[in-house]
């Protein structure tokens, strides 16, 4: 399943170092698309062009403060993820909470970076997250899985399962989806892959694949979604490198 992606990554690696302007244009495009689509999946109504303007520091009339903050915060979270990759830091619970803290900064500071203290339901999903009082224990188990069994997997499968397990636990009151997609991309980027963008138009397939993974332990649809998304990003790199 991962052979084609590995071959594309090898082609890109052979052409490194890439042209500075090429890297800059790809990064700016991915940062915008990633922020727009990840927030749109969660119901943010900013368009792609409006998101671009907000990230440039301009306020959009008719849009809520929360929607503005979601865009700005997501960009800050991406920059933090890039910093983790640059410093080659080991994956940790502190990073997870710090990413979430950035996502909810100014929106819900009381719950930003803090595990939920109540039970929740995921709208439209069959799976019911675990009781709040076992969240810390399950997050600890997630870290153990990552450091042991997870390291035996191909990085794409490991990143996909990290997302799946994290969302299944649903450790925070809000912002779990955005945090999960940031964690998935953090794992890819740490291993030399570019980030993926799950598009707003794929929202139903994305949620269905997650629910399937959570209810019957069938991870194939979600992994395929990640593979398809990664192929799109790699193809963008290859196109601009010609």
From TrEMBL:
Superkingdom, taxonomy of origin: Bacteria
Family matches, as PROSITE patterns: FIDO
Domain Fido: 91-228
Sites annotated Important for autoinhibition of adenylyltransferase activity: 42
The entry's keywords: ATP-binding, Nucleotide-binding
GO MF entries: ATP binding
Binding-site list for ATP: 174-181, 206-207
Active-site residues, Swiss-Prot/TrEMBL: 170
Gene3D superfamilies (alphabetical): Fido-like domain
Pfam families given in the database record: Fic
PANTHER family: FIDO DOMAIN-CONTAINING PROTEIN, FIDO DOMAIN-CONTAINING PROTEIN DDB_G0283145
Protein name: Fic/DOC family protein
Organism, as annotated: Serpentinicella alkaliphila
């Amino acid at each position: 399943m991962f052979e084609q992606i590995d071959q594309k990554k090898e082609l890109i690696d052979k052409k490194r170092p890439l042209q500075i302007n090429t890297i800059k244009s790809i990064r700016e495009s991915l940062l915008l698309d990633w922020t727009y689509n990840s927030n749109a999946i969660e119901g943010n109504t900013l368009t792609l062009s409006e998101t671009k303007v907000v990230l440039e520091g301009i306020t959009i009339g008719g849009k809520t403060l929360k929607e503005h903050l979601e865009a700005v915060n997501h960009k800050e979270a991406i920059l933090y993820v890039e910093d983790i990759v640059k410093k080659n830091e080991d994956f940790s619970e502190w990073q997870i909470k710090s990413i979430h803290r950035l996502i909810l900064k100014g929106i819900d500071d009381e719950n930003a970076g803090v595990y939920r203290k109540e039970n929740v339901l995921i709208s439209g999903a069959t799976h019911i997250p675990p009781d709040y009082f076992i969240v810390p224990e399950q997050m600890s188990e997630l870290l153990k899985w990552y450091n042991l069994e997870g390291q035996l997997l191909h990085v794409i499968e490991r990143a996909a399962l990290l997302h799946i397990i994290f969302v299944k636990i649903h450790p925070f009151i809000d912002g779990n989806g955005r945090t999960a997609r940031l964690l998935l991309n953090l794992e890819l980027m740490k291993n030399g892959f570019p980030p993926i963008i799950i598009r707003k138009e794929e929202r139903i397939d994305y949620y269905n694949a997650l629910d399937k993974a959570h209810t019957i332990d069938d991870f194939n649809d979600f992994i395929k979604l990640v593979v398809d998304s990664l192929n799109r990003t790699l193809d963008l790199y290859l196109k601009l490198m010609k």
